[in-house]
Amino acid sequence: MPPHEGLTHLKEYDIKDSNVELIGTEIDHRVKHNSAETEPAWNDGKVGLQAGLHVWRIEDFEVIPWPKEKYGQFFDGDSYIVLHSYKVGKDGNEKLGHEIFFWLGSKTSQDEAGTAAYKTVELDEFLQGSATQHREIQQQPSDEFVALFPRLSIRAGGVRSGFTHVDTDAKTKEITLLLRIFKHLSAVGRDSIIVHEVEPTWQSLDEEDVFVLDKGDKIWVWQGKKCSPMEKAKAAQVVNDLTLAKHIDVEVLAQTDSRSHVVIGLLGGKSNAPDAFRSCRPVSSTTTCSSRPRRLFRLSDASGQLSFDVVKEGQTIRRTDFDTNDVFLLDVGRAIWVWKGLGASAAERAMWLNVAQSYVRQLQGTSDAYLTPLAAVVEGNESPSFFKAIEV
């Protein structure tokens, strides 16, 4: 009988929960190393051996390869694992660097989120513990994650629900699909465009973005009066994709056009809808995160007990501030990094996610800090994004 047989889906995952904090003990590492040797997802002859991108979705506690043609498309009810392998070094001394992201949809289940976190650590074991690990939240992804996908799209539904909002039998059910297209600002100068399914109501409209409304028999494009040329161009690509399988009329309307009220009406709005449209974006940029002073903490068990102490606050942080014998937590506001020294004890290294999430919970009282991207690096295998974080 398969090991997952008989298991049932638990409640929808609340990212504020700490169910993944116990992952990472020393015995966990040994178990995962042995398990990784027999995990089909990792043993395809390419993972860890070739530069490139790999995406898997968690389905019934298993790691299932995501079709390459769907790379960049995610469902809010699912959890995913993404591996980015890249070459570092030169002049014949090249090696592969690895970044692992476990992405949690806003409506993913508890078991899917836990499996994604568990399997991420297992994949790191398969890669000899050299990978940078990232925890990604749908509502506030890291710049590094967004940069991997030129065509990032987030839709409603997922493997648990077995549905999408698009009904293939338009005769029995009217299609109403509303996609919001907006610019995602990056702190490192690599702005992207995101396509995100939103509630099909006029209150979802925003004058700074472009919206595509698919009613089944016709597609409407509503261009907010402050939208950018990039968002308009992206909307044209989205419409092209939607019309590949069906030949239907498409009408593009600017918010300032007299007929733009037609789209508002189709979304349930009335003639007295406001002229100014504002709605919160479903995905926020790390550049909009609440500003906190830069802080560096040391995690050490040199005294016989684990301690967590402030090293620097509001000061310039340099590479020399990190000691190979300990684990450090770096809070740069838009992201939280954990640096694991090679000489740190097994207990210190194993506690990184526990410490990071405990730290985040202390910040939750006055902000949405729980959405802050978390990442961990190992001394000697730091990712370029980590070095950028300490240089800023």
UniProtKB/TrEMBL annotation:
Any one GO molecular-function label of the UniProt entry: actin filament binding
Gene Ontology cellular component terms for the protein in this record: actin cytoskeleton; cytoplasm
Gene Ontology BP, a term: actin polymerization or depolymerization
Chain's gene name: sevA
Organism: Lachnellula hyalina
Annotated protein name in UniProt: Severin
Domain of life, per lineage: Eukaryota
Domain Gelsolin-like: 69-145, 195-243, 320-386
Endpoints of the signal sequence: none
